[in-house]
Write a structure and sequence with these properties.
The chain has nine helices and 19 strands. The protein is α+β, with helices and mostly antiparallel strands and about 475 residues long. The protein has two domains: about 1-40 and about 435-460; about 60-415, no CATH class. Strands 1, 2, 5, 12, 13, 14, 15, 16, 17, 18 and 19 form an eleven-stranded antiparallel sheet that branches. A four-stranded antiparallel sheet has the order 3-4-10-11, with no helix packed on it. Strands 6-7 form a two-stranded antiparallel sheet.
Length: about 475
Amino acid sequence: MGCCNRRCALLTGAVVGAAVALLGGILIPVGNNLIEETVLQEAVITLGTPAYDNWLSPGGAVYRQFWFFDVQNAREVVEEGAAPVVAEKGPYTYLTRYLPKANVSFHANNTVSFLLPLGATFEPFLSVGPEEDIITSLNLAVAGVYSKLPIVLHPVLETMIKSTNSSLFQQRSVRELLWGYKDPILKATVGLFAPYNGTFDGYYTVHTGKGDIGKVGTIDTWRGSRSLPFWDDKYCNMINGTDGSNFAPFMDPTKPIYFFSSDICRSVSANFEHSSELKEIPVYRFGLLPSTLASPVDNPDNHCYCRNPKTTKNCTLAGVLDISSCQDGQPIYISLPHFLHATPSMHQAIKGLNPSEEHHKTYLDVEPITGITLGFAKRIQVNMMYGPSKIITVLKKINESIIFPLVWMNETAQLGDDAASLLKEELVDRIKMLDVVQKVLLGAGLAVFALCLIGWKMSDAAL
């Protein structure tokens, strides 16, 4: 009787163990489906969802750090034709993108329109000095007017330079160079980012993800158009992807991500580099490829970004993007800081540059389940072109056109501690807990089933 009861208990234990293991196995797809359905619902940009709150206003502080290229030998460049020697000076840090999106309007076709307010507040404790620090830099008016005037009008610029006692280089404060000053030549406000405070980027119209979560955040129109007006080519004028703040959930690391940046007047792609953690939250790091600003010789897709064969050496120059077409004709060139990945001759023309992949590349850290960008570093250098002239005195010693670095900026942000704790609690910890419960049930159930089954067999053999 006792042997029979023991065999029955073992058999019952084996059945219970099998049932527990089966429950653990069932929980895996059920739990995964539950997580997926929850994320898909909450990732839609609509009133009341976490995605809307994250999209409407930055979850963490966004800063723009500026490093200027301070010219050390301005007199030698003008009077002797020496190569410019520069020293990096910075960072000068500003809090930006602290304002929520404005004029938000939802549409029947599952899109939402908005303006992106622009503002910058100086952060002295995150800077190497005050905004009044003086920088010796390229004279923006001289370089700008030079690029627009045909040679026959060079005497006009020569007269303007002499009458205002100007030169190829000037000394200006950090505040003036960034946000504007009254230029004596142009009799107007000139600055690298003037006007900025109180202005807007947009309108943007983006997909909310309702009905097709794969489109969430994807830009439908910018300034009312589905394409850009800056490039003489349909491919280069395409507006691809999001604004970089979020992407479709459940990201596939084998596929590139696409985003549009109005700062560089074009769309770019980024490829998966590696997995890591940001404040204990798993993220995928995506980075721009060197081919993004490669010459058309190495990357034929960039052929339509080459607008001036003369200044780009017949489109063989790598590492820079001529954005004069979206800067009112000003000779503005965008590159990575210190001409990272640029043609070697650009490093040789300017002394004092030290490109570094670690410090000068652009990357985004994206939480792969929700598709939310938790941290990023968008690094861009602003350059201007100037060249030789037989008439303009300050340019007579210049032998060839030079793309000169003015400033590079790092727009950076990282998820705040409170937002990180909330995301970790609501998503990461729950997924880990569910995973542990699934594995414990499956493991414990299989172990009980195996032990009971073995005991039952041994009891059977003893009889």
